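Q: I'm writing up a methods section and want to include an example of the input and output format. Could you take the sequence below and give the corresponding predicted structure tokens, formatted cleanly so I can copy it straight into the document?
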Amino acid sequence: MLTKKDFLSAYELSLKTNDINCGDVDPSEHCDSFIELIINYIKKGSVVRFQGCGALVVRNKSSRVGFNPKTGEQFIVSARRSCSMIKTVRSSAKGIMQDAKITTKKLRFDLGCEIGDHDAANILVNTFIRMITTVLKGCEDRFSLTSLGAFSLRKTKSESCLSFTPSKNLKEYLKNQQ
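A: Here is the clean output for your methods example:
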């Protein structure tokens, strides 16, 4: 399993390899800013795309009838807001506004302003995408960031796709925004 510690060490290694000095700022602050930025976009309801991996999307799910597979008992699953990872984003998808899409290009720009070093911001985003890609390729089973959530590989009969499980705090925030 990949963790924030792995993410931070990969980012620091990339900075050293590319001869980028972040000055007095600790690289862990960059990682925290990046994760916080993604969380803020999710809280706004924006679509956050990661090139080649998919997108984090906030969806409003309506109530539905569910059942317990063991007993066959039916019950009502209440309406809720949730965040999930999808492979492709369609502009016609329910609840997704065209102008609310945030791509990694936009994240790079925002991070460049926030971090103060555009190259370091690009490396940070690319490191994050590389970590997700290791899960997609099956090299690791999970990439977990405590404050954001966990990315894992979900296999179906026809394909494998990336699954996102939001952190407890993010789930509670989305639940309260209903």
